[in-house]
Design brief:
CATH architecture of the domain at 22-90: 2-Layer Sandwich
Number of strands: 5
Shape: globular
Order of helices and strands: HEHEEEEHH
Largest sheet: 5 strands, antiparallel
Helix content: 25-40%
Radius of gyration: 19 Å
Strand content: 15-25%
């Protein structure tokens, strides 16, 4: 029973935390404008003051004072953060860096075109 108790505590101590895949950074107004211009190229979702870019391995959430990257693991979040500046390159190169963009379809346009 003593071994069972010690292994229980070891698992609790070394168990990964749920928020390990979250990177968060406070940003200045200038940094916000730069990041906003960069992320808009990838056609993100915009909710009030939040810009949310959904990527295959995580999400990038930008608000006026904070950049937040939420991913499954810390490694994925760090990779997304390292590769964000590649959005300034042509979209055809984005997949090589693990980035993507969403193509939003306007239902009114789809009805007109017959698609």
């Amino acid at each position: 029973m003593d071994e069972e108790g010690s292994s229980f505590w070891l698992i609790r101590i070394f168990k990964p935390k749920k928020n390990d895949g979250i990177l968060e950074q406070k940003i200045t107004e200038d940094a916000y404008e730069d990041l906003k211009a960069l992320l808009i190229r990838a056609k993100p979702e915009v909710e009030n003051d939040k810009i949310i870019l959904k990527l295959p391995h995580g999400d990038v959430i930008l608000t006026k004072d904070r950049l937040r990257i939420v991913a499954k693991s810390r490694e994925d979040a760090e990779k997304i953060l390292r590769n964000l500046h590649y959005y300034s390159m042509p979209p055809g190169l984005w997949p090589a860096y693990g980035l993507s963009y969403s193509i939003k379809r306007n239902p009114a346009i789809l009805k007109k075109s017959g698609a």
